[in-house]
Amino acid sequence: MVSFEQETGLHMSFDDFTGWSTGWHEDVPQMKLDWLHLTHSCDFCEFIKSNPHGRKHCIRNKAAVNRIVNHRREGVSGYCHLGLFDMAEPLVFHGWMLGVFYYGSVLVKGKEGASRRRIRKHCTRFNIDPDTYLKELGGITVIEPSSIPRHRETLKTVVRLAEYFCDVAGVRPDIYRRRSQRFPYDDPEASPYVVKEAMHFITSHIDEPLIVKDLAAHLRCHPDFLSRKFKQHTGVDLSAYIQHTRIERAKRLLENPKIDIGTAADQAGFSDRVHFSKVFRRVTGMTPGQYQKEALGKVPARQTQEP
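Above: the chain's sequence. Below: its structure in token form.
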């Protein structure tokens, strides 16, 4: 992704429908993306999203595109509400929609006037001075219309590579919970820095002892502030999130026949196997041993009772 960006001046990102902090990035660390590639991060987009109004409408625009791509299961091209050109291509693996790759955030030569008109129309509707928006637009990369098919093939190549890497890594998309595509949806762009960094740190250090006080010290903020912000933007208590992440990690480990329960507990950050078993059963409704047997197909899957 970086090499294509450097060569073309277009920006590439991936909108992960599974939630990056507990999704397939964690299972395959080499595939985990930095935040610059999980959001639209060109200078113009960052400027627009620097205020609540701009961020809300950017998220609304992306959610609309995601719904279209998800429904069609094929790529689309077009202009955002502020006139930037983007291409979107779905990542579908084993029939599961994992997310959408974006490539663009540019102007198209000959269409600059139409892009400026989109900005003026948006600003007039919401009583915003368009001059600041138009000034920022001056630094955007401009591409030739004839280059669009080539850029689309580049994007499709990245998608095919992602599918290949998922296949080689043995990714199981059926075990992940996809987030809603309705607006507003839980997008990392909408979360404060401290929340994003907390989620990143938890994922990266889930095999270590983690308490809110130590996490807040690492992020250089007060524990009460961190807990309040985390609950406000995720709807989940921070301590509960840490525990849930540990259990999700343990579940994936137990799906490996070479890993025993003690190892799974240790690598998920539980120092006490008894405590691990209690928490695991409370969250999943099964003991770790029962879960592993079922996951490995040693006993029939539980039958769903009809209401």
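The CA atoms of residues 93 and 164 lie 9 Å apart.
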